[in-house]
């Protein structure tokens, strides 16, 4: 029997949810608004929230300064989508093996993979930097992009495998056994039976790890060639020894997060469906 909830309780929790959501979103809103201010108004005290002289000068500067916005944007697309897709190619069969053909050490292996995320990124910086230096990746745009795709793939691979393993465990093994009885090979079982059934989980994993790779700053700021620099490096360019240019920095930040906000907005239904995949039986 479903629990009865009064209208006042619903209204209260709805209001609380809206307040919490606004508090979380407010820094993003402030960044967007600051991008439309002049540098003087961006540092005004007290700050101006809506009533200020709106201008596009900061966005004009962002698009016209140096190489502009688009080279950094396409580098981010290549690194984020490339690393995530490559990780999925490796993670789907790995998660299948752990979910449907586990060994005695499967749980230990999963915990070991997850434990690698506990190590500070700076702990692996020197050896990876030396590899990039010795292989000429610090000055070659193409090799630097390939290297960043591989590095971010390896960094996010434990999370992707863990998420897919969780989703795959919710799929009845009887369905896969029925496919084997019909003569399906291992590759056919993974591609034609398992993958379509786990589309919500795979989609949510894809989206979350694209966001992680898109927002990655430590590695992209330290080991990428100038021609392979993504939007994180583009944003950092507005922090200089002369000071912070808050309006231009906010405009650059808004342009950097806009693609992810748009993707998240249009795919939120699929994302929620994937995150709750298997939660209700």
Précis, in short:
By secondary structure, this protein is an all-alpha fold. It has 14 helices and two strands; from the N terminus they run ααααααααααααββαα. The protein folds into two domains: 7-60; 68-237, MetI-like fold, CATH 1.10.3720.10.
Describe it.
By secondary structure, the protein is mainly alpha-helical. It has two domains: 7-60; 68-237, MetI-like fold (Orthogonal Bundle). 70% of the residues lie in helices and 1% in strands. It has a two-stranded antiparallel ribbon. Helix 4 packs parallel to helix 7 and helix 7 packs antiparallel against helix 10 (199-215). The chain is globular and about 70 Å long. The mean pLDDT is 86.
Total beta strand runs: 2
Question: Structural class given helices, strands, pairing?
Answer: mainly alpha
**What gross morphology would you assign?**
globular
Level-1 CATH class name of the largest domain: Mainly Alpha
Count of separate DSSP helical elements: 14
β-sheet strand percentage: under 5%
| N-C termini distance | 17 Å
CATH level-four homologous superfamily name of the largest domain? MetI-like
Q: Percent range for helical residues? A: over 70%
Q: Which blocks of ≥5 consecutive residues have pLDDT under 50?
A: none
What spatial order of strands do you see in the largest sheet? 1-2
Kindly give the count of domains: 2
CATH architectural category of the largest domain: Orthogonal Bundle
Q: What is Rg?
A: 23 Å
Mean pLDDT over the full residue set: 86
CATH topology of the largest domain: MetI-like fold
* Major sheet attributes: 2 strands, antiparallel
SSE series: HHHHHHHHHHHHEEHH
């Amino acid at each position: 029997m479903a629990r009865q909830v009064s209208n006042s309780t619903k209204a209260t929790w709805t209001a609380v949810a809206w307040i919490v959501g606004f508090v979380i979103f407010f820094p993003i809103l402030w960044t967007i608004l600051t991008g439309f201010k002049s540098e003087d108004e961006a540092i005004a005290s007290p700050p101006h929230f809506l009533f200020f002289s709106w201008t596009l000068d900061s966005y004009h500067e962002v698009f016209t300064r140096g190489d502009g916005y688009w080279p950094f944007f396409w580098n981010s697309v290549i690194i984020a989508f490339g690393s995530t897709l490559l990780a999925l190619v490796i993670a789907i069969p790995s998660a299948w093996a752990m979910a449907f053909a586990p060994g005695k050490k499967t749980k230990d292996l999963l915990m070991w993979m997850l434990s690698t995320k506990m190590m500070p990124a700076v702990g692996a910086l020197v050896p990876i930097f030396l590899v990039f230096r010795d292989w000429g990746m610090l000055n070659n745009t193409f090799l630097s992009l390939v290297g960043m795709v591989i590095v971010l793939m390896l960094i996010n691979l434990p999370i992707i495998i863990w998420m897919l393993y969780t989703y795959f465990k919710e799929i009845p093994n009887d369905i896969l056994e029925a496919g084997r009885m019909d003569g399906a090979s291992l590759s056919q079982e993974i591609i034609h039976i398992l993958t379509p059934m786990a589309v919500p989980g795979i989609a949510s994993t894809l989206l979350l790890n694209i966001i992680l790779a898109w927002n990655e700053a430590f590695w992209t700021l330290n080991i990428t060639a100038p021609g392979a620099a993504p939007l994180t490096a583009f944003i950092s360019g507005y922090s200089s020894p002369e000071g912070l240019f808050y309006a231009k920095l906010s405009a650059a930040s808004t342009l950097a997060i806009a693609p992810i906000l748009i993707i998240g907005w249009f795919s939120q239904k699929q994302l929620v469906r994937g995150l709750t995949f298997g939660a209700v039986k």
